[in-house]
Amino acid sequence: MGLFYSKDATSDPSPFCDEWRRVNWNDKTTDLRIFRSHRPPANCQHVRILLHGQLGAGKSSFINSVYTALQGRLCSLAPVGNNFQGSVTKQYKTYRIEKDGNSFYPFVINDMTGMPNGSKRNQITHLKDIKLTIKGRMKEGYTFHPDVSLQKGDPYYNDRPTADDKVHVLVTVFDANTVSLLPSDNVFTIHQIREYALDLEIPHMFILTKIDEACPELKDLKNVYKSTKLKEMIENVSREFGIPQSSIFPVKNYHNEVGTNDDVDILILKALNRIIETGYDYLNKCQLQA
């Protein structure tokens, strides 16, 4: 039955239900126009988004898919591996996306190594590193070590983080194929990270990747918000981690395509835009409290 409670498949044999989230599938031009109109927040140069999650969940592929959707061409900006070789991301890396020849979009995405499985010591190390990253203590290029977290005095330890260095939105990335089978130590780590972010009032959002694999009935992505299985999956994730369903976004990353797809782009852009807007809200609140 997996980690999360799941209904008996025979209780609702239909793979589709009434549409439970509205999307305009013919409005990609408007979505792109919204992104081009984004301006840096008054108190920061950009919104900093931190991705974390399972090994092989699709964090780096999500970054490449964001770049593809915004640039209109396939991109391999972030290195991508597979589920059998562990985490390809070994260093703390910041990704900026060019807006035109002279500027960048007013957000950056940070990628980090995936959550380890098994060793409690590795889990604790990972948790410490995420907390340091959220507070802006980790410098670009730091190499993650499974047994030892970043320490004061290390050349990559930032003694004086600015508002730009700190994380403004935390995004947990799940593989929709395996989210119901998450190891209990990973679940515990995510709860600890979420609690830490909430204590700092940092917004926390979830991305569900590989929905086309988890829900093979989605031959047409326009049916994503009619999927009974996906609706239940989001409800279960919301229940387990105490996050609103409106903060959970299902997406399909680019991985074996040879060209772009508007439906893939629209799901990516809708999720990213909500993440960025949430980051703006957080920074505006910080400015009012200053």
> How much strand content do the residues show?
5-15%
User: How would you sum up the major sheet?
Assistant: 6 strands, mixed
Q: In order across it, which strands form the biggest sheet?
A: 2-3-1-4-5-6
* H/E element sequence: HEHEEHEHEHHEH
| Tally of helical runs | 7
- Outline: globular
Helix coverage percent: 25-40%
Question: Based on helices, strands and strand pairing, what is the structural class?
Answer: alpha/beta
Report the average pLDDT across residues. Answer: 91
Detail the poorly predicted runs: 5-10
- Count every beta strand, where a strand is a DSSP E run of 2 or more residues: 6
User: What is the end-to-end distance?
Assistant: 48 Å
Radius of gyration: 19 Å
Question: How is this structure best described in words?
Answer:
The chain is an alpha/beta fold and 290 residues long. 34% of the residues lie in helices and 14% in strands. It contains 7 helices and 6 strands. A 6-stranded mixed beta sheet has the order 2-3-1-4-5-6, with helices on both faces. Helix 3 runs parallel beside helix 4. It is globular, with a radius of gyration of 19 Å. About 2% of the residues have low confidence.
List the helices and strands and how they pair.
Layout: H1 28-37, E1 47-53, H2 59-71, E2 93-100, E3 103-111, H3 120-134, E4 169-175, H4 184-199, E5 204-209, H5 211-214, H6 228-241, E6 248-250, H7 262-289
Parallel strand pairs: 1-3, 1-4, 4-5, 5-6
Antiparallel strand pairs: 2-3
Helix pairs in contact: 1-7, 2-7, 3-4
